[in-house]
Amino acid sequence: MTDPPPNPLGGKTLIVDANDGDSYPRPSAALLDAGEHDQVFVRPGIYEDKVFITGRPIHLVGADRDKVQIFSRRGGPLYLQQVPSGHISGITFRYVGSDQNSAMNLLDSTCVVTQCRAIEGILSGVVIYGPQSRPTFVENEVCGNRESGIFVFAGAQPRIADNLCRGNHHFGIAVRDPGSHPELVRNQCRENMLSGILLFHH
Which of 111, 128, 149, 174 is the S-S candidate for 142 at Cβ 3.0 to 4.6 Å? Predict the structure, then answer.
């Protein structure tokens, strides 16, 4: 898919394409200009970037997770804090640094993440945390991370469904802390080095 999908919100669609001088060079640059009802569409390519969104919706669509990669050497490539709504789809997030970071960080956020991939986090591939964190995380791949695939903690209450958690060094899915209450449905956890799913005390 190289053409953007229709914007269901009725706003503009901002195009990211590193090879097109008329488009935005990086997703973060387009998101800075995006209004509440705008969506950002990322064409195929590998982008060194850090997507950091706090306190506002996000609407970020990639052409395909096999064709769009956002990677970062300094911190995780995706960090959401108190994001009240929105969706992210069709993108691979890859952390290539050496510090303790995850590929996808969702703190106290409520949005939909689907058809994405999280790989090579030094910590877990995806961390979902905070008592106000209620994202919907469905149909994603979380593979080859140095600790767990998906780690839910600090009171988060996400819906986690139909994801593939494969080849992570610790657990496919891990849940910790009082108040953490994920809904886990039809996830595949295989070829992880410790447990497929670990539910800590509480």
Answer: 149
Distance CA 16, CA 173 (A): 32
pTM above 0.90? yes
Q: Which phi and psi angles does 86 have, rounded to 5°? A: 120, -170
Reading across the β-sheet that carries 112-114, which strands appear in turn? 13-16, 39-42, 58-62, 86-89, 112-114, 136-138, 159-161, 183-185
Joined tokens for residue 171? 């657990």
Find the distance separating the first CA and the last CA of the chain, reported in whole Å.
44
What does DSSP say about strands 126-129 and 112-114: parallel, antiparallel, or unpaired? Answer: unpaired
Give me the percent of the chain exceeding a pLDDT of 70.
99
The b/e string for 30-69 (b: 16+ C-beta within 10 A; e otherwise) is: bbeebeeebbbbbbbbebebbbebeeebbbbbbbebebbb
Q: How far apart are CA 107 and CA 83, in angstroms?
A: 8
Q: How far apart are CA 65 and CA 149, in angstroms?
A: 17
Give the integer Cα–Cα distance in Å for 50 and 92. 13
